[in-house]
Specification:
The complex is a heterodimer. By secondary structure, chain A is mainly beta. Chain A has strands spanning 4-7, 10-13, 19-25, 31-37, 43-49, 56-57, 65-67, 73-78, 87-94, 104-105, 109-113. In chain A, strands 2, 4, 5, 6, 9, 10 and 11 form a 7-stranded mixed beta sheet that branches. Chain A has a 4-stranded antiparallel beta sheet with strand order 1-3-8-7, with no helix packed on it. Chain A is globular and about 40 Å long. Chain B is an all-beta fold. The chains are: A mainly beta, B mainly beta.
Chain lengths: 114, 113
């Protein structure tokens, strides 16, 4: 099993450009999440999804959009990139329900906006 | 909202024991998790406490006191490879039953020879 796979792993954008980050998981998890991590800080939740066709806002959703058309995929879009969106983006997935809620993370996507 | 506090840095020597504390303020608290992250890597799950008390997993243990909104991660027999950042995370449920985790800013552990 590959677990959680993120593409691309690195990307450089100019201000105003758009892009999409793809997250794929093969563990049949219901929940999927997008976090961003800035240097020396924890992970902040951008958007999450509790199942196919559903999405919800997290802590820092502005400037991002998401879609979950298939259970195994969760896409994060930046419509008009800004330098403040330079960060490392982590996708994660987990089982639903009342278990430990262990998050399985991808390896991260490092985005630089010039 | 949720907020978590943990020390920013901790230093210890190889073979020693270190404790990383985490205090939290949250609504709809369900459990406290701990994650490890090496430089440039992805966070990996270490432990979870849903009930008060101590959970032990090898050299790592985690403790929770729900009444004090407090938990800690205990690392024993420290090894050089334990040098990493450690994050506590609160799992909560809202009325939609959507489990989400809010992370602290992390504690950088440096293990010295």
């Amino acid at each position: 099993n590959a677990g959680v796979t993120q593409t691309p792993k690195f990307r450089v954008l100019k201000t105003g450009q758009s892009m999409t980050l793809l997250c794929a998981q093969d563990m049949n998890h219901e929940y999927m999440y997008w976090y961003r991590q800035d240097p020396g800080m924890g992970l902040r939740l951008i958007h999450y999804s509790v199942g196919e066709g559903t999405t919800a806002k997290g802590e820092v959703p502005d400037g991002y959009n998401v879609s979950r058309l298939k259970k195994q995929n969760f896409l994060l879009g930046l419509e008009s990139a800004a330098p403040s969106q330079t960060s490392v983006y982590f996708c994660a997935s987990s089982y639903s329900g009342l278990e430990t809620g262990e998050l399985f993370f991808g390896e991260g996507s490092r985005l630089t906006v010039l | 909202g949720q907020s978590l506090e943990q020390p920013s840095e901790v230093t210890a020597v190889e073979g020693a024991i270190v404790q990383i504390n985490c205090t939290y303020q949250t609504s709809g608290f369900y459990g406290l998790s701990w994650y490890q992250q090496h430089d440039g890597g992805a966070p990996t799950f270490l432990s979870y406490n849903g009930l008060d008390g101590l959970e032990e997993t090898g050299r790592f243990s985690s403790f929770l006191s729900r009444s004090d909104s407090y938990g800690y991660l205990l690392l024993q027999e420290l090894q050089m490879k334990d040098s990493a950042s450690y994050f506590c995370a609160v799992r909560d449920f809202y009325n939609t039953n959507a489990g989400k985790s809010t992370f602290g800013d992390g504690t950088t552990l440096t293990v010295k020879p």
